[in-house]
Amino acid sequence: MFKNAVFGQYYSTDSLIHQLDPRTKIIGSIVLFISFFMYNDYRGYIFITIVLYTVIRVTEIPLKYILSCVRFVLMLIIVTMFFNLFFRKGEVIFTYKYIVFTKEGIYAAFLSGGRLLNLVIGASLLTLTTMPTGITSGLECLFSPLAKVGVPVGAMAMMISIVLRFIPILFDEFHNIIKAQTVRGGDYESKNVIKRLKSLLPAMLPLFVSAFRKSNELAVAMESKGYQLKSMRSKMKPLYYLKEDYVAFFCIVFYFVIVICL
Amino acid sequence: MSIKIIDLCYRHNDQRDFFALKNINIRIDDGELVGLIGHTGSGKSTLLDNIIRIKKPTSGEILINDLNIHEKGFKVDRLRQEVGILFQHSEHQLFAETVYDDIAFGVRNKKMLDEKQKKAMVYEILELLDLDKSILGKSPFELSGGEMRLAAIAGVLIMKPKVLLLDEPTVGLDPAARKRILNIILQLNKKQNITILLVSHNMEEIAEVTSRVIVMDKGNIILNGKPEYVFSHIETLEKSNLRAPQAAYVIYLLRQRGINVRSDVITMSDAKREIISTFFKEGG
Amino acid sequence: MSSKEERNTNEQLKKMTALAMMSAIAFLVVAVIRIPVILFLKYEPKDVIIMLGGFIFGPTSAFVISLVSSVVEMITVSETGILGCIMNIISSCSFACTAAFIYKRKKNLVSAISGMTIGYVFMVICMLAWNYLITPIYMGYPREAVAELLIPVFLPFNLVKGALNIGITMLLYKPIIITLRRLNLIPKRDTAKPEMISKKVIIGAILLLIVAAIALLILSK
Could you give the ipTM of this predicted complex? Predict the structure, then answer.
């Protein structure tokens, strides 16, 4: 049930962007993110919006799906627009009782609302086009120079992989535990918060016991296969750049330059 | 306490076309001990979840004692008390500080009972399960695997259910513990008249204790009848990734070779008796 | 490898998988338990899990759990991207790491409660500061508007969140740790040395964060 959400918003297509190296996409994501803070007027906004939607078309992911992923943040967007609408001072257009609508307010509301929407969609692009395991690989590669300063990059990447691997398992188990306690009188649905809190321990304790058992077994299994914390590990699917990646890098740099100039 | 399932269809929330349960029609009468078998993914656990109202049917009805459990006004607490369920690896649900606390968890909210009465109820269950009172003070995590499972069973029995749904109650136990639990199941059914639905992958167990067997395959019921009847359909069972009890295979192979043994034999002890008597009849 | 080193690797490996498991539980808990408090702000008991990890394994471990679970959230269901991830980490760490640090000095009930209270106050301050300084840049609305919201909305939310965190942690800590110790699932003493991340790196990371925040502030002017 939850297994779909765990692998996040990844939507599989054969698009060019999906095939890019994760590192390229991560860097592209970061550049996109930074660029969002670099414009303040409508010219920059239009340019970025065009670029964003072009990229979306290239990924071949249906817009409906993308919008459904960000619907939780919709509330935030509405609040933002609300703020700009009613709290900006400036040239008054009309008043309704005590509420003042200003030209700057309306302008800023749409600008910030649209920008937030772009921001959220831009942030999701990475997770929409790259599997979590791919992103982990990419991050591990990109951060590997930090290993020389003592940051345990390999171990962290390993931990992230373990988490990704075990979330569905723990989720099923948690679900079963809650079922078992529910039929014994545990209350997980009531509006009464106190009742729900009382039922927390019967749900959490077995989960912890089971999780720690698994982690111990995992440690033994890893050790018996020769896993060393500090050694260099080879990969089954090593990351390497294709010519599409170089093209993509060029586009990214080009885009960034334009944004700076605008 | 009877259970009637009428045209039950169930589909998970996030799946549009795949039905985990398709047109299930089952009737379990008061006092029966029914076995439920099926390959992994056939829908057994989903069916149980529907009966105890943890999942809601997409269509169809579930009647317990002829009352629709999804009708307005139906008391879910009563359902939880009268229909007990033991999930797979039930020992994983133990959490309390002492075994006593864990067993009494099901009745801790009952205001009508005082401590003395609760204690008496716990002692009663211990006697039923043939457990020593010394177990009560220990932490559930100090117990052996078999004891933990018995403690979990006790935790369900204390609510005095009239129906018990058991999802693989003997899986993962050593033969002695398995035998013990099977005996308890028989006792609960025969002496306390508790209606039991037993889900298991162990065909010998099913052949041993049940009076009726239901076979599920990919969300459908493909066989429903007496164990002798169901287990004689060896090909059908094997097509569904199941098998018949070992005794049934022996009988089947003997009959294939032309030896005239009765075909409705499914337990080892019956098979032994039947083979010996046929052997002597045929003149050794 | 000498047997002492072997034992060490074993302990370190066990610690790593344990922290990974706790991060998984933290992620899980966010997905399963969400209680709306005010407006769109919802409470999830993730900080309780990180807190428990901090009490069991120490303040650095709390940081690690927080980092790993936030990163996993970001790469699977990121709604707010990297800034949201960082805010998550700061929120959890300001609470859990301070408390775990104080608890580490003296492991008794008093220091646990006082540690959590101090962490609680610190977290509220950090969150208010973050929401005042960074969020407006992110969202693009004026600081004055946020200031109006700060007291009536953000403050009570963080107060309630912190209080719930402390309460639930107190409820869960003792039974869980007694059971885990009894089952030998966690080391009786923290014998895994050296620490996974050296203190220098953490200080470096915090400095980096502060520099980045200042840069962001300047950029937005």
Answer: 0.84
